Amino acid sequence: xxxxxxxxxxxxxxxxxxxxxxxxxxxxxxxxxxxxxxxxxxxxxxxxxxxxxxxxxxxxxxxxxxxxxxxxxxxxxxxxxxxxxxxxxxxxxxxxxxxxxxxxxxxxxxxxxxxxxxxxxxxxxxxxxxxxxxxxxxxxxxxxxxxxxxxxxxxxxxxxxxxxxxxxxxxxxxxxxxxxxxxxxxxxxxxxxxxxxxxxxxxxxxxxxxxxxxxxxxxxxxxxxxxxxxxxxxxxxxxxxxxxxxxxxxxxxxxxxxxxxxxxxxxxxxxxxxxxxxxxxxxxxxxxxxxxxxxxxxxxxxxxxxxxxxxxxxxxxxxxxxxxxxxxxxxxxxxxxxxxxxxxxxxxxxxxxxxxxxxxxxxxxxxxxxxxxxxxxxxxxxxxxxxxxxxxxxxxxxxxxxxxxxxxxxxxxxxxxxxxx
Length: 421
Known about the structure:
Elements: E1 2-11, E2 44-48, E3 63-65, E4 85-89, E5 93-97, E6 103-107, E7 113-117, E8 148-157, E9 161-164, H1 171-178, E10 196-203, E11 206-212, H2 227-235, E12 239-245, H3 254-268, H4 270-274, E13 277-282, H5 289-299, E14 305-307, H6 316-328, E15 353-357, E16 360-364, H7 366-374, H8 380-392, H9 395-401, E17 409-412, E18 415-418
Parallel strand pairs: 1-3, 2-4, 9-11, 9-12, 12-13, 13-14, 16-17
Antiparallel strand pairs: 1-8, 2-7, 5-6, 5-8, 10-11, 15-16, 17-18
């Protein structure tokens, strides 16, 4: 088992701004407000896909941004919603907050999903601000910012496919050819003392985890050598590739080797005897292999047999494609459960912060940012709306509590104001 991990940045789309627009109709002041609302920003969603087995694709792209919402339009037309970004991950993926390390989602089921970042809300058009005392509002509301978050995708990988066979049949070589794993390879027994894992990448989001299980010997199921420890790893795989030295080197018989390994699997756990197997007759580049391969096929006509050479990379890709296709038909196993804790996304805080610093007074916060972007300071009604919102949200009272006086500077975003009652 090893951990497949990817750190990525997610940015949801910003909400579209509301529009300031006018109808051109008789008896309507200034034509009548007709600005439509902005569209909602797209979300960043993580969704499980049973066809995926690794997080390999996230190694190449680290930043994911959803589409912004479209601005509102004339004639009360709403802006289009921003398109979501859907990140597809294997079943069993954990989503962690990078800053705290807390698990914010444990996606254990096929097609389960979690919204990592929510898109900003669309702003209201000027038509929504019309009232009995404000017949022709010449301002609109800005859309809110989309949430942003750095997350860690983590998948504790048990190998999907295990390579089994006697020592020195070419399992490590096969793993090194089809993945980026670098197992120690040499022409003697028990080179591999613990399982090596590699990710087989077939393209088009098709990948799986392959384990080189150390070579088994006769009596492994009874604990001879380290065989019982190795068989524990075989037990956790979904599919086996049985690697056989078709050349019969070291005086071995491929048919006898095949039967002995299967006896050890069955002796350890009856379920292992029923686990799906693909047969890879390796070392077909050697002259003795052809006759042995023909004999093997005659003995086991019902088996799926591939002939090739790991060292020569012959027929290896076809074998891996077949393994991937076989995996899709095997039911997903249960995954370990993790405690999910609520991890606050700072971008979700919608409060207003009022504070004093070096004799100056500051007003900050997502709501204030939105209010500033919604205000036309050259328009009397828009400015009055801005001031009403500050008072309604208790900003003026908070400034007074901090000791603000007449003429003191108050900084709101990029703007500097003088305080007057």
